[in-house]
Every structure is written in C-alpha cells, then in structure tokens.
Amino acid sequence: MKERLQNIKDEALKAIEAADMPEKLNDVRVKFLGKKGELTAVLKGMKDVAPEDRPKVGQMVNETRAAIEAVLEENKEKMEKAIRAEKLKKEVIDVTLPAKKNCVGHRHPNTIALEEVERVFTGMGYEVVEGPEIEYDEYNFRKLNIPDGHPAKDEQDTFYINKNIVLRTQTSPVQARIMEQGKLPICILSPGRVFRSDEVDATHSPSFHQIEGLIIDKNISFADLKGTLEVFAKELFGEDTKTKFRPHHFPFTEPSAEMDVSCFKCGGKGCRFCKGSGWIEILGCGMVHPHVLEMCGIDPEEYTGFAFGVGLERIALLKYEIDDMRLLYENDIRFLKQF
C-alpha cells in the first residue's frame, strides 16, 4: 500500500510538472483528489486492509493528499503570476474604467465540516460508505429494532412513497446493509442526507445530513466507544475539550448514551453559547443492540460493536458559531463569504 501511494504521489507530481495551464492543473486535481480520483479509490479499498493497519494507511493517504495539494497550490500560484505578468505586457490598462471584481467560489460550510470529520475518522481506520436515500421501511425501521407501533417510529415521522418505501430518517440503514453482508470486522463511517417531517425553524429542517459510525468486532466494549469519541472531540474542537456521557435510550443500541463536550467558548465555565451549563450536547451513541446483530445475521455471543450518530449541520453550527440552521441553505452570498 505504501508503494502504491508513493506511485500515485510520483505520478501526480509528474502530471503537475507537465501542466502548462490552470485547466490542466484542475484536471490533475480531479484525477487524483476528486470523488472518483485515485486517492479516493484507495480509501474505498480500506475494507481489504487489515484492521490494525488501517490507521497507518489512513494517515499515509492524508499525508499523500496534503503533499499533492501543496504542490498543486504552489504551481497554481506560479502559473497565475506568469499569466498575469504576460497580460500586463500585452494589455494597456485604462485606469479610468471601473474595476472588475471576480467572485471565486469555495466549499460550503457543510462540506468543510464533513471533510474535517471524515479526515479524523479515516485517520483512525474507518471506511466511508454511502447508501440509498430512498430506503425500504424494513431497513429504516424494523432492522434497527423499531417495529410497527414502536414510539420511536412516531418521533422519526418521515415521508412515505408507499407502505414499504420511505425517504430515510437516518443513515443507520447503511449500517444494517453492511452488517448483512457478513464481512467482519466492520469499521465504517456513513454520511448522507436524511429526511424527517419537521417544520423549518432555527434548529430543524425536513432535509438535513447525518454522519454515523459503526464498529463490529470481537471484544468491543463501551470503553472503546468512549476512547474513540474523545479523540474525535479533541481533534474537532481542540485538545482541551472534555467529554461527558449521559444515559439515554435508542432502540438500536443498549446501553445508550448522549455525549456532551465542554464548551469551547468558555472552557466549561458557563456562557451564553452553552446556556450557562459549560457543556454542549453533540451526539448519541451506544453499544449495538444484540437483537439488531441477530437480525443482520451476526452472532451477538461472539461479536459486539458500537455505533454513534451526529448531525452534520450541528457540527457546522457549533464549529462556526452559527445560531440559525436556515443560513446554511439560503445561499446568501454575504453569509457564505465568511467561510
């Protein structure tokens, strides 16, 4: 794998060196760093890497990506300077004309937050997987220990296409589909769009995004869950971040907990941002319910696991101190320019 990554890096650097215009540099970026690029293909192949080697491989992939991006940016700047200098030689500037302002786009705050979360977990050996947004009721509810008539089904009121097909209310169905395949151990992160019949306000939307994680292996304990989420919180909000777990109930995990992080604005002393408590609720988690394992064909006597789920918008709102979720979707250029 190390040799493969080195070959990808060498090939990318040669392609960057050979590029003689910004468009070709962009082609190189897409080829090696895009969604269907070679580095992404390596991440998708993490399932074939031994679990103990995944953190090291994830780190090597991140280092390779960073090296390629650095050289790309450096060459892009040099190229733009050369093009600008050439234009200045050829063009006569009329200083009385009004200036032209170019608006350059950039990543949406949701995308920035998602890439940050994916970076943290791929560095710990997780594989990013996706699933269908239009889902069977069987996977969205029953496979997750939420049978017909269960109160949790009312809490997750969703949009039905027919009796058996819904717009998914969470990305947990992806976990059920992966568990059904029976390829153990499992170590995945499943981000994606979800839907619930909510009124639009400052903290709710009928369409939003979730990021869920799942590990299934032998001898997995709640201590592993706590350690993983503590690393995640420190990477995302800073080394001084503390975590607190409160008992909760989720149908598909037992025991279950809500995780709070110490307020990164006041350091836990209490402020307006954390409503004086010093803590901010961030995600739900727990040990995978034995019945869920059984329904997905996994022996709960031999295997255990943990799962967690966090709203992507919640991460973005907290990280960038945004007080209204609607701002993320209104496409107000004055708001988006701040990121």
TrEMBL record:
The keyword Disulfide bond does not apply. Its cofactor is Mg(2+). It is found in: Cytoplasm. Its EC number is 6.1.1.20. CDD domains: PheRS_alpha_core (cd00496). Binds 2 magnesium ions per tetramer. InterPro entries: aa-tRNA-synth_II, aa-tRNA-synth_II/BPL/LPL, Phe-tRNA-synth_IIc_asu, Phe-tRNA_ligase_II_N, Phe_tRNA_ligase_alpha1_bac, Phenylalanyl-tRNA_Synthase, tRNA-bd_arm. Keywords: Aminoacyl-tRNA synthetase, ATP-binding, Coiled coil, Cytoplasm, Ligase, Magnesium, Metal-binding, Nucleotide-binding, Protein biosynthesis. Residues 61-89 form a coiled coil. The keyword Cell inner membrane does not apply. Residues 117-330 form the Aminoacyl-transfer RNA synthetases class-II family profile domain. Mg(2+) binds at residue 254. GO terms for molecular function: ATP binding; catalytic activity, acting on a protein; magnesium ion binding; phenylalanine-tRNA ligase activity; transferase activity; tRNA binding. It is an enzyme of class 6 (ligase). It catalyses: tRNA(Phe) + L-phenylalanine + ATP = L-phenylalanyl-tRNA(Phe) + AMP + diphosphate + H(+). One of its GO terms (biological process) is phenylalanyl-tRNA aminoacylation. One of its GO terms (cellular component) is cytoplasm. Tetramer of two alpha and two beta subunits. NCBIfam families: pheS (TIGR00468). Belongs to the class-II aminoacyl-tRNA synthetase family. Phe-tRNA synthetase alpha subunit type 1 subfamily. HAMAP family: Phe_tRNA_synth_alpha1. This is Phenylalanine--tRNA ligase alpha subunit. It comes from Dorea longicatena.
